Amino acid sequence: MPKWFIPLAILCGLMCATAPILVAQAPYESTMGLVQKVFYVHLPSAWMFLLAAIVCGIASVRYLFGGDSRQDRLAWAAAELAVLFGVVTLVTGPLWARKAWGVWWQWDVRLTASLMGWMVAVAYLLLRKYGGPGSDKLAAGLALFGMANVPFVYISVNYWRTIHPTTNVVPTLPTSFGVPLWFSAAAFLLLFVLLLRLRMRLEEQRARIDALYLSMDT
Amino acid sequence: MKLARLVLVVLVTCGASRVVLVAQQSPPQQQDEFVPIDQLPPQDQLPAAPLLVAAYAFVVLALFVYVVSVARRLTSVQRELERLEADIKRGSSG
Q1: Whole-number Cα distances in Å, A78 to A40, A51, B7
Q2: Which of A20, A81, A216, B41 is the most interior residue, by most CB within 10 Å?
Q3: Within a 13 Å sphere around the CA of A133, how many CA atoms are in the beta-carbon half?
Q4: Does the CB of A213 have a partner CB in chain B at under 8 Å?
Q5: What is the pLDDT of residues A46-68, one digit of tens each?
């Protein structure tokens, strides 16, 4: 593992331990009250979900056109993180919505597009696991659709009628809400980088095993 | 046969009377104005704490399960790698 991994893991652990204290100290939002504090994990996990889809898409493009197997490993690792952070987003969102909107789910454009993006990431992983030879290229093609969905998820709330808040909420947040949000987002970003590196390490070791088996056969 | 017919008649009569009773009950009072969610009667309000705890517990659990899953896969791959390297070394020396 690279030298930066352990210091970054310690920093990430400290930040993850501090974030709940900041969240607890943040004021109650006037209309939603206590349940609004789901925001501090829902939004950072949604950002990591979209970031993972972008990383997976870019790495897939580079793999398709450059043939670099390191990019393929990066795409695979990012797809797994897209599924992880996607499921966190899609579970914490309804838990918040149940209280704030009175329903668990709405088939509005932001929620539906997010679900579609998550299903693309799941399809990517299923294709890699069960697709057989050639599935790497097919999955890379699929990842492009996952990446193309990201801007649609992001801007959809500004163009379609929806009960989901628009993208103007975060830039206009008061400091008392903004500090715990950005701190939590930084902790999630560190976690994302660490998990991505750890997951890539797994693929690197698998590639070494494959190379060793090939060398034994020849 | 007569008994079965009698039972059927009794059942139909009971069912019909139940329908009439339900129809005679006064409809629930209609709400004709907006009531903010925090002004609802306590029995209609949804507690926020269980939802908040469930959300944070899910985040911790999902991340923990994923880290454990990657660590286990990594350990198993590492073991296989070491075994293979040992086999190759043994093969080349023998």
Answers
A1: 22, 9, 68
A2: A81
A3: 0
A4: yes
A5: 999 999 999 999 999 999 999 89
Q: What angle do CA B79, A190, A153 make, to 5 degrees?
A: 110
Q: Is the ipTM of this complex over 0.90?
A: yes
Q: Closest to B78 (Cβ–Cβ): which among A37, A38, A205?
A: A205
Distance from CA of A95 to the nearest CA of B (A): 6
pLDDT digits (tens, 9 = 90+) for A162-197: 889 888 888 888 999 999 999 999 999 999 999 999
Facing B46 at nearest CB: one of A20, A45, A99: A99
DSSP state letter for A170: T
Closest to B79 in 3D by CA, of A88, A217, A202, A54: A202
Strand partners, A29: A33
Residues of A in contact with B78 (CB under 8 A): 205
